[in-house]
Design a protein that fits this description.
Blueprint lengths: L8 H7 L1 H4 L11 E8 L2 E8 L3 H22 L6 H10 L4 E2 L2 H16 L9 H6 L14 H10 L6 E4 L2 E4 L12 H15 L5 E5 L2 E5 L7 E6 L6 E7 L4 E6 L4 E4 L2 E4 L13 E8 L4 H7 L1 H18 L5 E5 L4 E4 H6 E3 L7 E3 L1
Parallel strand pairs: 15-17
Antiparallel strand pairs: 1-2, 2-6, 3-5, 4-5, 6-7, 7-10, 8-9, 9-16, 10-13, 11-12, 13-14, 14-15
Helix pairs in contact: 3-8, 8-9
Length: about 350
């Protein structure tokens, strides 16, 4: 699992191949408007095609204001509705929550159950223990006894109950970090806002989680998947209306000690950052494509090479890709049909 809100600008640049290599251009006669901002601890980019600039600018402004609202609401360690709820949990108290946050918690709990607990937003205490709940973090492992103590408490989403507008936890160790959910939720919110304003063709990119609306003129929106160890794109794919793509990688937030890389994606079963996986990319669609593009990649990443394919089936993901620790690409047959690899000599392992 990961924390979303403390990404440095240096690492942010690594995320935005899914923005910088979007293969976008303002060619042709139709207007094209694009705006960037820094929110959720990452670079976000909203592109609108085929609308007059004042109309596009107004629509994008509303989306960016919505992103900031969600950022302020869901920040895991600065004052927010979420951090106030965590304080209540730690004190064994119930607390009133907004209907929106209550719905998020119930949705995240269902996704956690579907992912057999590998997507677990209740492990904010473990993320903090590893130092990833910070704007800048240090190259330092926590004491193994601290990890063991945390594991014994076993916080999980099923510890949380929401009743009559109040949330409580039966486990004081529950500390919510929605970093693996918020970007996807924001994608869905942005798509809804744009459609409400009559924007038919747009691309929304939140630090590598991307959703497409309509097309870019006569062609589909085409995006690049960040190579986890090299500058530029590993592959590109075209997105149809309403589809979203999300990548979880060990190159986004990490530190190294000796020859070992410790990333922000932590296995709640062991308490340690995942080893042996460089990146996972999934393609999603449907009413909640954004949320799925964010949350559903985590069980695949944490399951590793041995279990990613079973996890993809469990999460209902026919199109998925994993890059293992040696850089070998594993992917589903359905994902292979959608990709165009930058290196024509790449020979991925296709797993049915």
């Amino acid at each position: 699992m990961k924390s979303l809100f403390g990404l440095s600008l240096r690492r942010c640049r690594l995320l935005v191949v899914l923005g910088a290599t979007l293969l976008l251009c303002a060619c042709g006669k139709e207007p094209f408007y694009q705006e960037q901002a820094y929110v959720f601890g990452t670079l976000v980019e909203v592109s609108v095609y085929g609308e007059p600039e004042p109309r596009a600018k107004q629509a994008v402004s509303e989306v960016l204001h919505e992103f900031q609202r969600l950022h302020n609401m869901l920040h895991a360690w600065q004052p927010s509705e979420l951090s106030a709820l965590n304080a209540a949990f730690a004190n064994g108290e119930s607390k009133a929550v907004s209907p929106e946050l209550a719905a998020m918690l119930q949705d995240a709990a269902q996704l956690s159950q579907q992912g057999q607990g590998l997507f677990n937003p209740a492990i904010g205490g473990l993320i903090q223990l590893w130092g990833f709940q910070a704007d800048e973090f240090k190259s330092r492992k926590p004491d193994e006894k601290q990890i063991a103590t945390w594991l014994a408490k076993h916080p999980q989403m099923s510890d949380i109950a929401v009743e009559q507008g109040k949330a409580r936890s039966s486990n004081k160790a529950v500390k919510l970090d929605l970093g693996g959910y918020a970007k996807g939720y924001a994608l869905d919110r942005a798509a809804g806002l744009l459609r409400k304003q009559g924007i038919r063709n747009a691309l929304i990119n939140i630090g590598g989680n991307i959703m497409a609306l309509g097309q870019h003129g006569e062609r589909l929106w085409r995006v690049g998947i960040q190579h986890p160890r090299k500058p530029g794109a590993l592959a590109t794919l075209a997105l149809h209306d309403g589809e979203a793509v999300g990548t979880s990688g060990d190159y986004q937030r990490y530190f190294t000690l000796g020859d070992t890389r410790y990333c922000h994606l932590i296995d709640p079963r062991s308490g340690w950052p995942v080893q042996g996986v460089q990146a996972v990319t999934i393609l999603t669609r449907g009413a909640h494509a954004g949320v799925l593009s964010d949350a559903a990649s985590k069980p695949l990443f944490i399951s590793g090479v041995a279990g990613w394919r079973a996890a993809a089936r469990q999460m209902g993901l026919p199109e998925a890709l994993l890059v293992d620790g040696q850089g070998v690409i594993h992917l589903t047959a359905e994902m292979q049909k959608r990709l165009e690899f930058s290196d024509k000599n790449v020979h991925p392992l296709v797993e049915p």
